[in-house]
Design a protein that fits this description.
By secondary structure, the protein is an alpha/beta fold. It has a domain of 142 residues: Aldolase class I (TIM Barrel, Alpha-Beta Barrel), CATH 3.20.20. The protein is built from seven helices and nine strands. The chain has a nine-stranded mixed beta sheet. Helix 5 links the parallel strand 5 and strand 6.
Length: 260
């Protein structure tokens, strides 16, 4: 059975470089993907039955050829992107609008930072005004449940409801419980990871890293190199691959102690 949805880290380069990043993306990050490889790989997966691809990183807008990839795949399958939003301006914004992605989510990593909350709120509304379906990926850490709740309430109050917010529990450390995430979401129906209650793999989804290694999710350390950049190569790499649960690797660090 083909994977219905795939996620590709286009690069590990990121102009934000948060210390808690699950794949260690930073301002000096790299990628092993060429533009042609991404396009050919996704096209082959689409022909095999994949219906949606999401692009992340790192920061996908810092990947050379990001817009070429979006243009080349237009109309073939659902194309979404997650961005930190720092480049959503000027020529990059114009190029993104012209590429007509099917959905763009802007990450809100620091709900205690009012400048970031206001920026993300403005950018999501701006994208919608340009005709791009948009939303927010809100990072929820146990040490900042009050701040996350306030940011989420503001988003909902300003017209960005839970149907447009993905509540992402911090992984690795400072991880909230499912009930704590639900409270941040206003105890209303909400979107989150399928593994919010317990670690498990989805047979419909897999993650492909910037280094062409595959995994059942973006956070697990259980990974395997693609033997070929094809749908069959993906099937082979995922066959029998385990799933290591993401666990704390170091003492928990409060979000407001991390470098922005």
């Amino acid at each position: 059975m083909p994977f219905e949805r795939i996620s590709i880290e286009l690069t590990r380069l990121c102009n934000k470089g948060c210390r808690f990043c699950y794949n260690g993306s930073n301002r000096h990050g790299d990628t092993l993907w060429t533009v042609e490889e991404v396009i050919d790989f996704v096209n082959d997966c689409q022909k095999a039955g994949t219906r949606a691809v999401s692009f992340g990183g790192g920061e996908p807008l810092q990947y050379p050829g990001c817009f070429d990839v979006l243009h080349a795949l237009k109309g073939k399958l659902f194309r979404s992107m997650t961005t930190n939003g720092l480049l959503l301006k000027g020529n990059a914004l114009k190029a993104l609008i012209a590429a007509e992605p099917d959905k763009v989510h802007v990450s809100l990593h620091f709900p205690d930072n009012q400048a970031e909350v206001r920026r993300v709120l403005q950018q999501v509304h701006m994208l919608a005004e340009y005709g791009v379906k948009s939303g927010v990926n809100l990072l929820v850490a146990r040490s900042q449940l009050t701040e996350a709740s306030a940011a989420a309430a503001l988003l909902r109050d300003r017209g960005i409801g839970n149907d447009r917010i993905v509540y992402l529990p911090m992984r690795g450390n400072d991880t909230p419980s499912a009930s704590e995430v639900a409270r941040v979401a206003g105890n209303l129906p909400f979107q989150s990871m399928t593994c919010i209650n317990h670690c498990h793999a989805s047979p419909r989804f897999c993650s492909i890293g910037w280094d062409k290694r595959v995994a059942w999710c973006s956070y697990t350390t259980a990974r395997r190199q693609l033997p070929s950049l094809t749908a069959e190569g993906l099937r082979q790499a995922m066959q029998g691959l385990g799933l290591e649960e993401c666990r704390p690797q170091r003492p928990a660090i409060a979000l407001n102690e991390l470098t922005r």
